[in-house]
Each structure stands twice: as C-alpha cells, then as structure tokens.
Amino acid sequence: MRLAQFTVVYNVAEGAIAITLGLMAGLVSVVGFGIDSGIESIAAVLVGIRLASRLRHGEADERKERLTLKAVAATFFLLAAYVTFEGIRSLVGGERPETSTPVIVLLATSIIVMPVLAAMKRAVGVRLGDNLILADAAETRICVWLSVSTLAGVALFQLTGAAWLDPVAAFIIAAFAIHEGREAWEGELVEGDDDDD
C-alpha cells in the first residue's frame, strides 16, 4: 500500500512539473511524458483501492475494476492521439522548441527513482505471490523506458539543435501509450491474479 501511495504522490508531482516545463519550452514529448505520469497515478490508485478492498473484505469488485481499467485505457489512447497530432504539427510547422535543463534533471531523476520503485514492487509481489502487484511493477518498468526515450530525445535535441528529435520522442511515447492502453483494456491488472494454476 505504501509503495502504491508513493507512486501516486511521485507521479502526480512529476506529471505536473513535466507538463509545466514542457509547455514552457514547447517540448511535445515532455508534455506527453507528464500526461503519462498522471495516467500512471490513476493506475496506482486502482492498485491501492484493490489492495485496500482485499484487506477489508477479502475480495474486490471485479466488474467495477474492469470498467475503471477501460477508462484508463481510453486515456492512454487519447494521450497517443494527442502526442502524435502535436508531433506531426510540430514537424510540418517547423516549430523549434527551447532547450530546458530542468527537463533533463526531471527525466534523469525519474530514471533513478523508477527502477528502484519497480524493484521494490516486484520484491513485494514475489514475496506475497500477488500478480496484481507484479503487474504494477511491470507498468513501473515501462515508465523507466519511457523516461529513457524522452531523455534521449531532449538531450540529443539540446546537443544537436535538431528540432525533429522532439516529435520523434513524442511518437515513441505514443507507442508506449498504445502498449499500456492495450494492457489496461485487456484487463491485465484485474485478471492477472486469477492465474493461480
């Protein structure tokens, strides 16, 4: 529960900062990264609610969780559509984002924090034999790769001045969002713990 709570607090803060810095610098990939952090917070809340329900009642309302996961999946698909549209608009319009050292620091921090958080979730999931927690740990690992790809795009842009790198990083975020959206739509976080055999 504490790991889920930390995930929510960290991702909300990270998302708010990333969206603000991304809008200020005109970095589409960073805005998309921030929105993704917000969506991950929703997934962490879902995990926390389910764990709390298990502790109180011994079981959770599967139907409500499936509906919630469908809503989370829809937000991932909307994120993919948004960053793809903005990335194409940026490429076609020849827009030049600004360089941003705070963005580099934020993404580097995420690359340090998220692997540790994923490892801690995985350790708890293995110890408890809980596939829900293991699925959440996998989602956190995906965030690590998202941070790496976004940081690579922004850092390369700052080094080379090639404006097309930001939209390309945004397209990578769109691919991650579609992947996460499909997992949520298929109900991985809900159905994963039923595979006891």
Architecture overview:
This protein is mostly helical. The chain has seven helices and no strands. It has helices at 2-25, 28-57, 62-93, 101-128, 131-160, 165-185, 188-191. Helix 4 (101-128) packs antiparallel against helix 5. The two termini are 26 Å apart. The relative contact order is 0.17. The model is unreliable at 190-197 (pLDDT under 50).
Task: Tag the structure with descriptive keywords.
disordered C terminus, 86% helix, mainly alpha, 197 residues
The helicity comes to over 70%
Order of helices and strands: HHHHHHH
Question: Which stretches of 5+ consecutive residues score pLDDT under 50?
Answer: 190-197
- Based on CA atoms alone, the radius of gyration comes out at 17 Å
Tell how many strands the DSSP assignment holds. 0
Question: Helix count, per DSSP?
Answer: 7
Average predicted confidence as pLDDT: 81
How many strands, what sense, and barrel or not for the largest sheet? none
Beta content comes to under 5%
Q: Report how far the terminal alpha carbons are from each other.
A: 26 Å
Which secondary-structure class do the elements indicate? mainly alpha
Based on Cα principal axes, name the global outline. Answer: elongated
